[in-house]
């Protein structure tokens, strides 16, 4: 360990593992350490025994739930947009060769007390029970505008500068109702709250186009994909990538202490009496608690079930978004479900999650609207964790700290944080302009 490295990465959460892989591919000398003896950090996947130990103490799980090893329960459940940034990152780094994916069956939105399939194209809008006849026509015209919009072709802009007008102004030009705006903004554009309405419309249009492009890739019921055996596979895949390019891994290293020089710049990491020198440190918030601030909490319920979620067309994997306005909340609630078809549970078993940014100290009652959609559950666990973001100035101390995972059940915000950190560390941007249709990994999905 008494060597000098370009970067020491602390923690094997997904964000840290992606960065470790990207930096190793760049030719940097990387040492990756974790105080835990497993990969994944806060974003790990647990087998049934581990899940029971974490939430129920030392109890052994009941035999009727099946073999412990057949469970891979994500602690930060998220789906991937099929045409999104994480998939592009996977293909760019060739990490797809370590992973297999399967499309997610359904994408739904909660409106007026019911679950509805999310319409994503002009044709789906015409069939959707979310809207009345005249509203369907207006929505169809809006979808056609979005589908045809091309930043480089002013003819498709119809005289509108989407970098200057707000989403609210764009929507008002199409005369859409508040309920339609609700599912477009939250279930298609995947905004977490309503602040987007007063921001430039270009962002919402790009998000809607990403949703439609992702949906079109597999002609399936949703724009999402998900790895077989759960998200715990992702950090390990990026760890393999880092190792292939010379990265060094050390798990189960207690008390990783970041060392600083007289100028306050990082100069190394000490564990078990040995110090590894480095120029930069990348870590999750738990390794540098004095350089982060609390920005909220995530409340989550984890359910083991013996059936798919009712009213989702028997989908074995599904996302349901409950927009804030439908629940009288400040931010959205998310339901995520996957099953034995993604190899995360024994045959006949389903794993469902209900997640939200906590607005009270009572997750049981706060998450009730999402839990009520699940039907009968075999077992139910509740989790709550604090979220942190960095407050340091990396240019002064060379410490690059990730932001805690949010409550969303998709990866777009996670990868944005990673790519911004990569640029801060290296001064470069990752070229993600890969041709997804030609990607060799596509047939694995």
TrEMBL record:
What organism does the record attribute this protein to? Urochloa decumbens
User: Could you say which protein family the record assigns here?
Assistant: Belongs to the Rab GDI family.
Matching entries from Pfam families are given as:
GDI
**Protein known as:** Guanosine nucleotide diphosphate dissociation inhibitor
Query: What InterPro entries does the database record attribute to this sequence?
Result: FAD/NAD-bd_sf, GDP_dissociation_inhibitor, RabGDI
